[in-house]
Design brief:
alpha+beta; 12 strands; 4 helices; outer membrane lipoprotein receptor (LolB), chain A; twelve-stranded antiparallel beta sheet; about 230 residues
Length: about 230
Amino acid sequence: MTLFSKSSQSRLKMITAKGRSIIAAGVIATAIGLGAVSSLVFLPSPVHAQSSEEIAPETIKKIENYLAGITTLKADFVQISSDGGAAEGKLFMERPGKMRFEYNPPAQILLVATGHDFIYYDKEINAPTYLDIDETPAGIILAENISLTDKVKIVDYRRTAETIRVELVRKSDPGAGSVTLVFSEKPMQLRQWNVTDPTGIETTVTLFNAKEGMSLDPELFKFERIWPKRGS
């Protein structure tokens, strides 16, 4: 599972491969889906980018301050994977600790961070899976104090004429996969992220129609199973 701890991976073994792919990308979207894009445009591959030997500390601080400055957010998202998978939905977030990540039909997936638990819910079989939020990428960005150097490590930094790309792995399990954050600089804005799992499958998530700083209904960050009505 991309960027999950080994204990989280063992608890998710019974979920189908397709479901696991959705979870991985969904959790990443939850964790770092904090920017806004004006249109649905996927950024070019960094193949021809010039790589810097080391990211400057002031650049790290600038990114951390930008992400920490977001308190609430809602947005639409589109997710595309290199294995042919595609999905879309809506994201709601309230820092610290809370989010709701909904996939549109036909996907029957819901992700909710309540401030304590991080829950993956398969509506079709009415099966929730509870995770420690600190074992997911969501814990990095939903934390009260955001750090790109505490629990994660920057393993690649690339700059193009239009973007900054920062690739991260978890220090506790660097082989579990990576996530690349893609920012524009002027102004600083998270435009896109790419997730690569241990098998090499890459998932790209783009946000659009994003809004920040609004009041969100507290009910969005509560979780209840959808029980069938009696007699149905």
